[in-house]
Design a protein that fits this description.
This protein is α+β, with helices and mostly antiparallel strands and 148 residues long. It has a single domain, classed as 2,3-Dihydroxybiphenyl 1,2-Dioxygenase, domain 1 (Roll). It has three helices and eight strands. The protein has an eight-stranded mixed beta sheet with strand order 2-3-4-1-5-8-7-6. β2 and β3 form a beta hairpin. The longest helix has 11 residues. The two termini are 30 Å apart.
Length: 148
């Protein structure tokens, strides 16, 4: 059994980018993750078009995105009302968001909404949990670098 694969072709998902966690009190959660759990805050961003404020944290070999609601109509507010605080989504890096969505459409998997601009100015798209075994997935496209 091969446990470690060097630079395997992973298909549409290249790596886990971050874990999204919905929180009721963004400031308290950010303090807890930094002061108690030892994460480092990388950036903080308000995304009014998505109804969220996001705090991206680095834990060394993992990143966590804390998500707070910007108003009652926010998807995070709806999530918190239904589920309370906790895991909201998993985000995977993809090399080509349009190609990934075309591939998924061939298999009957449609996004919740068309791609949009997310935190950090990156193009993102969410896949409905009914198509992904109960987990909300975010595909995050990073800009192509020269030579890659």
């Amino acid at each position: 059994m091969k446990r470690f694969i060097e630079q395997a072709d992973a298909g549409i998902c290249r790596r886990l980018d971050h874990v999204g966690i919905a929180v009721a009190d963004l400031e308290a959660a950010a303090r807890h993750y930094t002061e108690v759990l030892g994460f480092t805050e990388l950036e903080r961003e308000r995304l009014p078009h998505q109804g969220v404020e996001a705090v991206l944290l680095d834990g060394g070999n993992c990143r966590v995105e804390l998500l707070g609601a910007l108003g009652e109509n926010s998807p995070i507010a709806a999530f918190l009302a239904k589920n309370r605080e906790g895991l909201q989504h998993l985000a995977f890096e993809t090399a080509d968001l349009d190609a990934a969505l075309a591939h998924l459409a061939e298999h009957g998997i449609e996004p919740i909404r068309p791609p949009s601009v997310g935190a950090g100015g990156l193009r993102v798209c969410f896949l409905h949990p009914k198509h992904t075994r109960g987990v909300l997935l975010e595909l995050t496209e990073y800009p192509k670098m020269n030579g890659s």
